[in-house]
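Protein: DNA-directed RNA polymerase, mitochondrial
Species: Heterodermia speciosa
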Amino acid sequence: MLYKPTAPGLLAAHTEYVRELAWRITKTKNQQMLKDLQKWFEVDMRRKGVPPDTVTYALMIQASLSGDNRKSIPRTIWRYRQLAEEAGIHDQTLEIASRLLEDDQVETFEEFTKDSPQRTEVGEATLPGSDVLPSVITSLPEVKAVPQKGLGLTSLRKALSLFRDGASGLPSKDEKSDKLDPNATQNVLRQRRLEKDTFESAISRWREENAREKKIGVSTPVKNSSIGALMWGWHEALVSAIKDEVAKANEAESKTMKSASDRELCQYGPFLQILPPEKISAATILAVMATTATDKLAQGGVRLSTLVSAIGHSIQDESIAEARLVEAQRKRKKPLVKSQSLQAPRATKEQTRKWLAMQERKRKTETLEPSEWSRSIQVKVGTVLLSRLIETASINVESTREDSPPTKERQAVFFHGFRFVSGKRCGFVQMNKAMIEKMTHEPVKSVLLKNLPMVAEPRPWTGFHDGGYLEHLIPVLRINNGTLGRRYGVVASESGDLDQSFAGLTILGKTPWRINRPVFDTMIEAWNSGDAIAKIPALDPLIEKPPMPSKTALDYAEQRRKWLKQTKNIENYKAGLKSNRCFQNFQIEIARAYVDQTFYFPHNLDFRGRAYPMSPLFNHMGADNVRGLLIFAKGKELGVAGLRWLKIHLANVYGFDKASFGEREKFASDHLTDVYDAAENPLSGRRWWLKAEDPWQCLATCIELKNALDSEDPHRFVSHLAIHQDGTCNGLQHYAALGGDIIGARQVNLEPGDRPSDIYTGVAELVKAEIGKDAAAGNATAKTLDGIVTRKVVKQTVMTNVYGVTFLGAQRQVRKQLNEIDFAGSGVGPPDIGQMANYIAVKIFSALSTMFTGAHDIQYWLGKCANRISQSLSPEQIEFILAEDKVKPGVADYKKAPTTRKRVEGPTSFKTPVIWTNPLGMPVVQPYRNAPAQSVSTNLQRVSLQLPSPSDPVSKRKQFQAFPPNFIHSLDASHMILTALMCDAKGLSFAAVHDSFWTHASDVDTMNGFIRESFIKMHSENIIDRLAAEFSARYKDYVYLASVSASSVLGRKIQAMRKSAGRNGKLATNTEKLEELRTERLRCKLLASDNPKEREQGASMVTAASIFEQSADEKEIVPSENLEAGIGEIPSARDVKLEANEQLEVGDLDNAKLVLDPRTDDSELEKVQPSAAVKRRSAPLVRFWMSMKFPPVPKKGDFDLSRLRDSLYFFS
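Structure follows.
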C-alpha cells in the first residue's frame, strides 16, 4: 500500500471531500448528490479503512438534514450517531454538527436529536416524546392570584420554550433526581433557545393571553385583565409609535435644512432602526417592568435616569447580540479550512475539546466586536421609548367615592414627575397603584426570560468574553467599557493572569442545583395563605394608623406634625412590604418553573475579583427564602461525619451558632421532636422552625434530617443539602493575618480554642449594656430598644465597619434590620426607625473603638498609601502639564481662568487611581473618578449623565475610603477561588457566597481543611510587603502633593523659604503649584543624572521637598484633606451630610443601594458628635511637591499562622 488508512493526511483529504459535497447539498438540496455521498461514505470510505472523525460525522449529519424524505432522516441521523457512539465521540460530534447548521436546519436537528430513536416492528424509526408526556409541573400548587389571572404556568411554559413538553425533553416526574444530565447536548440546545427567544416568546405570550380574554368577551384592558393581556395592548400601540418615530427620523434625515428638532431626530433615529419595531417594543416593556419591579416601585418610584438607561442598555445589548449572531452564522457558513481536519484519525474527547476551543477563539478574534453605544445615545433612545410607553400604556381602574357609585376610568400606568433629593430636583417615574397591586399578586412572567439560571452547564471561562452563557457574550469583569480597569482586564486575560480566576469561576458555574420540592410546596402554601410567614410579607398587612389629633388641642400644630410623620412612616413601611412581596413573587415563579430541573448559576467577577452569579433574580446569594429552596442536584451519602454536620448545620441556621460543635449537635438532638413536627406539619404544627434566624433554611434542614433518621441506615442516606461554613468576621481574619496580631487572631478564631470567639455577640452585648444604662436614666429611645437589639442587628455594621463603611451607611444597615422587627407589642406607637438607627449606630461605633486594636495600623497604612496615590502625578502627566503651561502663559490661577471650550489641565488634576494585583494575579483598578456631568436634553426632561473616562480626575475621597475595604475584598475573593480549586481537585461539590463556603455534609471536614490550607498558603507570603514593593515599582518617578502642619517646625521652614522668594507660604494658587512642580521636577532629574556636576547642582537646590528630606520624619506628613477615620470613630454631622451628598459607594456591594441613597434628615444627625481626630486635623496645612514615597509598613506581630491548622472554628 502507498499509504496507511489511518494517516492524518488521508483523513484530511476525505473530510475535505465530504465538506465540499455537504456544502453543495445544503445549498442546492440535490437529492441524487446526497445519495451518492451517503453511498461513498458507507462503501468507499469504510472499504478503504479510513476511520471518520467528529468533523466527518458532523458533516454527514448536516448533509442528511437536506433530505426530502422526513421518514428516512431520523434513521440516517441515528445511523451516524450510532457510529460516533461506537467510536466514543458522540457528544462531540453533535456539538460540532450544531455549529455547522444553516438557519433552516436548526429546528429539524433539534427534533431528530432529542434522544436515541427506537425501532418499530416495521422497521420505521419513531422519536421518544412524540407522545407528549404530562408535564411534571402541572401538579404543582398554583400561586394565589387575582381573578382572570391568565394562562398561568401553562403560558409560562409556552413563553419559556425550553420547558415545553416533548420538544424540550423534560424529564418525567418518575425520573430519579440523581440522574443529572442524561442528554447534555439536548440541554445545550434548550439553553441556546432560551437565550435567543426572549422577546419573541414574550410577544407570543402577550398575544395568547389577549386572544384568550377576547374569547371570553373582554375587549378592553379592564382591571382584572392578566398582565400579559395588558402588555399586548401596550405592545401594539408602542410598535405603532416606534414606526412613527422612525418615519419622522427618516423625514428629518432627508431635509437639506434641518431644525434643532430635526438634528435631534437624526442623532437617535438610526438606532431605532437597528432592530425590528416589535423587538424594540418588547425590549422596552420588559426593561421597564423588570426595573420597576425590582427597584422599590412602591416607594416613590424609580429615577428617570435609571429607567431610561436600563431601556437604552437593553436595546443596545440586543442589537449587539443580533450583530454577533449574524456574524457567527456568516462564519459558520464558511468552509472549514484544511488545517481543521488535520487531526488524529480517531479524535479523543480531549482533542475534540481543544479543537472546539481553538475554533471558538479563532471565531472571536476574527469577528470585530460590535461597539457599545455612547451613554448619550442610550439615554436619548431610552427616553424617547419611555415617553412613548408613558403615552400608550394604560389600565382601566375602578374609582370609588363615598357619594357616588363605582366608575371605571382609563388611567396611565406610568407617571413622570419630580421631587427634591438632597436639594437637587430629580425626575422620577411612578407606577399606577392599581398596577402595583396587580404585580403584588401576579408577576410578569415574561420578564423572567432574561439571564435565568442555565439548564445546561455554563461554558468554561477561557477569555474575557468567553464563558458563562452560551449565546450572550457577557464579559468576565463587571466593569464599564472604556475604563482603565477594563483595559487592564483585557490585557490580563490575554496574558494568562486571569487563568486561576477563570478556573474558579468555571468550578462555581458547573455546580448543578435543583429545587427542594418539600420546601417549595410549603412556601406556596404559606404564600397563598396571605399571612406573614417566615419573612414573607402579608398580602394585606393590618397596621392601624394613629388617630388624628384634635383640632382643639393647645399644641395641635405640633401633634399634627408628629401624626403626619407617623402616618408617613406607616405608609412607607406598608409600601416596603408590598414591594418585597412583589419581588418574592418573581422568585417563587422562577422556582416553580425550575422544579424537577437541574440548573446552574454562571458567575463572573466584579473589579475586585469577587464572584457573583450572572442570574440576578434567583441565585444562592439571595435571601433566606431562596437559599431554602436550593439543594445540590448531586447527592452524597452522609456517613458518620455528615450526619454530625447536618445536625450542626441545623443549629447554625436556627441561630444557635456560637456554641461549641458538641453543644450545637446536642441542640439538634434535643429538638428532634420539633424537627419531626416541622418536617411533617410545617404550617399546621407547632411552627418551631419559624423562630429560626433563617427559617426556610431551617425547615429544609429539618426535612433532610428527618428523612435521614427515618432511613434504614442514616449514615447511608444520600443527602443533597448544602452545608455552609462561614468565616468569623472574615475581614478581620485577613487583617489579623496581615498584621500578625495575636489578640486579633484570638478574637476571630485564627487561634485554636475550645469554643468559638464571636465579635458580633461581644459588640451586641456592649451595645445592650449601654442601652440598658440609658433606659434606666430615662432615655425614651433606649426604653423602646431595651431588649430589642440582637447580634443580627449589629452584625452587618460590625462586619462592614472594618471594611470602611461610612457612618451614614451604618445607620442604614441598622435601619434595615430594625424594619424587620415587629414593634407592635412594645406598647409604643409606630417607631421612628431613623432616630433609633442613628442611636444604635453611635453605640456600635463606640463599642468598636474599645475592642479593635490590631487592624488599626494596617488600615491606616492602606489609607495613607491611597491618599498619596490619589494626589499624585505620573511623569507623563507632569510633562503634559508643564508643556501646556508654556502654551497658556499669564493665567494666574486655572480655577479662576475664563471658561473655555477645552478645559485647561491644572497641576491638581490628579488622574492616578489605586491599582494593585491580588494574590491570584488579577489586576484591581479602583474605578472612582469625578466624571464631568453632561446634560442631555430629552423630550421628558434634561438628564445629567456622568461619562467616565481614564482621563477624568480621580475622586480622592472615594479612592481613599474604598481602598482598605476593596483590598480586603480582593483577598477574600482570592481565598475563595483557591479553596474552590482545592475542592474541585478532590471531587467536592462547591459553592460560595463570598466568605461562606458550601459543600455536602460528608465533605465538610475535607473542605474545612482546604479552607485553612488555602488561607495559610495565601498569607504565608507577606502580602503587605509585596503590596508595598508593587506600589514602589508601579508609582516610581511619580510626585504627590504632600502636606505638613503649618505650625510644625517643618511647616514654618517651608513657609519661610517661600516668603523669602516672594511667594505665598502655603502654595495657594495653581501658578505657584506649577512653579514649584517645575522646580522639583528639575531637581529630581538633576539628582538622577549620570553627570556629577548636574547631581551636585541638584543637591544644592532648595525646595520644600529638600527641606523635608534634610530635617523631617515620615510622621510629619499628614493627610491633606479630612479623609481618615479609624475603626469605630464617629464622623462629624457635617461629614455625614457630605457622605450623603457625594453618594459615597464603599464597602459591600450588598449595601450599594443603601449607601447610594442620599436621603437623610436632621433628626438622624443631631446626636452625632465630631470625633477628636476630626478636630485635630482641622489645623492649617502646608502643601508641597514630593517624590512618591510610601510610609513604612507596620511591623508585623508574632502570631504563628501555622496554628490555624488546628483551629476548628476558623470557618464554622
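Remarks: The two ends are 69 Å apart (CA to CA).
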